[in-house]
């Protein structure tokens, strides 16, 4: 659903850039405008072609939906000494057992609704989830949750912290097949709303 809306816009922008006499200016404006749609105040500070890619550096301000306390925490965390990069989800991440179970059930729900007609084969799904840096304990929870159909009612009362942790992983799971259907779109939209 989301891809059906976004892809035609991207295709239009690509054609516009390919036919523009001022490609750099147009691309800078396009990047700032698209981030602006997300409520992010962005300024492109560098844009240069490198081999078959374009290197883009941006400076962003506090998003509209971000309160001052959260923004200051983000800045403080970024100024702290760097830790090894890990975008996965570890069971040790300061979450109560019930929250970890809720996360696993939400992720299982997304897997189940990605193609309701297709039978889920755990080895295939497991290899995709491992690539998302989920630890063994979380993988076990998801595997257990996949044994029964998960209800969309799970989305009704999601804790904001659970939603914030689940959302980026949920997006990656929904995008496994390069398409986002209406069930996945609803789940992602609900998680996004729960974070606010």
Helix content: 55-70%
Oligomer class: single chain
Instruction: Summarize model confidence as the mean pLDDT.
Output: 82
Report the order of strands and helices.
Answer: HHEEHHHHHH
Q: State the shape.
A: globular
* CA gyration radius, whole angstroms: 19 Å
Q: For the terminal residues, how far apart are their CA atoms?
A: 22 Å
What's the tally of helices?
A: 8
Strand order of the largest sheet: 1-2
- The count of strands amounts to 2
Count of distinct structural domains? 2
What class do helices, strands and sheet pairing give? mainly alpha
Percentage of residues in DSSP E strands: 5-15%
Ranges where pLDDT stays below 50 over 5 or more residues in a row are: none
